[in-house]
Amino acid sequence: xxxxxxxxxxxxxxxxxxxxxxxxxxxxxxxxxxxxxxxxxxxxxxxxxxxxxxxxxxxxxxxxxxxxxxxxxxxxxxx
Length: 79
What we know:
Blueprint lengths: L2 H14 L2 H20 L4 H16 L7 H12 L2
């Protein structure tokens, strides 16, 4: 089923659905969101990012501009 077909089906369900169908959809979305939350960063990864962000906040001039990095990569590797 294509994305367009899925969106059409969702719209149809929302237009014709009774409360029980909407509640089922809501539970599915909540489960999906919980799964995404469970696959998020670990505590260690969050701590590493917090340290890096603090370092950047204390001295932002040490960082590099993403545009400059892309230009450099393009020049070196034709990316």
